[in-house]
Amino acid sequence: MITTKLNNLYERYGYRQFKMTKFEPYDLYADNRDFLKSNQLITFTDLDGSLLALKPDVTLSIIKSNLGGEEKVYYNETVYRPKNHRYHEILQSGIECIGKIDSYSEAEVIALAAKSLQLISDKYVIRISDAAFLKQMFETMGLGEKAEEEALKLFSMKNAAGFDELVSKDMLTEASAATLKKMVDLYMPFKEGVAELKKYAISNVSAMMASHLAELAAIFESFGVLDCIFLDFSLVNSMDYYNGIMFQGAVADIPFTVLSGGRYDKLPQKMGRKVGAIGFALYLDTVENYLVKPHDYDVDYLITYDGEKDTAAKVAAVVETFNHADCKVRSVRLDELSTMEHKIKARKTLSLQEAEKEAAEI
After folding, report:
1. Lowest mean per-residue pLDDT among 3-17, 97-111, 171-185, 290-304
2. Rounded alpha-carbon distances, angstroms, from residue 197 to 106, 162, 213, 275
3. Which residues belong to CATH 3.30.930.10 in the chain?
4. 8-state DSSP, 200
5. Beta strand pairing status for 86-99 and 187-189?
6. For the chain, which has fewer Cβ within 10 Å, the N-terminal or C-terminal residue?
7. In this predicted model, what pLDDT tens digit does every residue of 226-271 receive, in sequence order?
8. Which CATH class, in words, describes the domain spanning 122-243?
């Protein structure tokens, strides 16, 4: 079971399991809509008249329970979100690291994201971007709010040519456009990408940020996960939520992102906690839909018996013999075989007499 493997992984690095109920007070989500994937919530009235909501998010509950100190937790929870015009139950596993987040803390969380993907497939990729670095670049270049918004769209589409249009509209200088064009096409192994990124740092602050990313690369190497981590500044879609490092993970044979995470200090600060935070969520429902192969058979043996002539004791004895041999067994009366609601796929279908003979040879 993948969740058991994930839990063991997180516990080896000192994370404790966080458990929560299926719902929280509606106000928790209403007050923090900026941090939710969707504003659509499933709500209901409690017996005391208070309004509750089925949880659309786990991170909010974890931060709410934190009292402002260092904490490392992991979870396996179901969230309830709209998707394709319907509400869905989405199974997630993930971790949250809360406290004074330093380079080690950031690198450990991303390394655990990588190790989580390794448990699913040996072919995986984690893409990393840095919202703070981009914000600093835009600020140093003097971009206005509209220009920044347009620049982020170009990064998300990897549209280098679009920066020329911003120059023509006097929203960006030619020198700044030249720098951003190079950054938008930057997709490289993390260590090499950071070395290249240092060339684009145009302020002391951005140079320090690039040095911080280089430090992360060295820690990734120590964790043994550097080879599958890449720098990619097209990852900008969640910059309203993340304020620093952000990342996404994918594995072979699944055409969707299966993991996302990053640094989100603004959320605990909004909730009155003087701490930083970084974490990720792994979308187990997506993983299971694509990678969990259906069994060839429901059971090893389907044993049919005559409900009038065959004794129940004989049926039980045969079933127990097969069970002790680690076989899956389903028994059904002959007169109900044709009316079974769910047709059973069995490796062998045997009458009770045939089953007794086979059981005798085990």
Report:
1. 290-304
2. 19, 21, 9, 29
3. 1-101+265-293, 122-243
4. G
5. unpaired
6. N
7. 999 999 999 987 777 899 999 999 999 899 999 999 999 999 999 9
8. alpha beta
pLDDT more than 90, % of the chain = 79
Tokens of 90: 């989405």
Q: How far apart are CA 209 and CA 137, in angstroms?
A: 11
Separation between Cα atoms, residue 118 and residue 124, nearest integer Å: 7
Place domain 1-101+265-293 in its CATH homologous superfamily: Bira Bifunctional Protein; Domain 2 (3.30.930.10)
What gap in Å lies between CA 189 and CA 196, rounded to an integer? 10
Whole-angstrom distance, CA of residue 43 vs CA of residue 57: 14
Distance CA 158, CA 183 (A): 9
Nearest C-alpha neighbor of 63 from the set 213, 275, 260, 241: 275
The three-state secondary structure class of 196 is helix
What distances in angstroms separate CA 154 from CA 101, 230, 323, one per listed residue? 30, 19, 61
Note the pLDDT tens digit of each residue in 16-29. 999 988 899 989 98
Spell out the residues 6+ positions from residue 350 whose beta carbon is closer than 8 angstroms to its own: 301, 302, 303, 304, 358
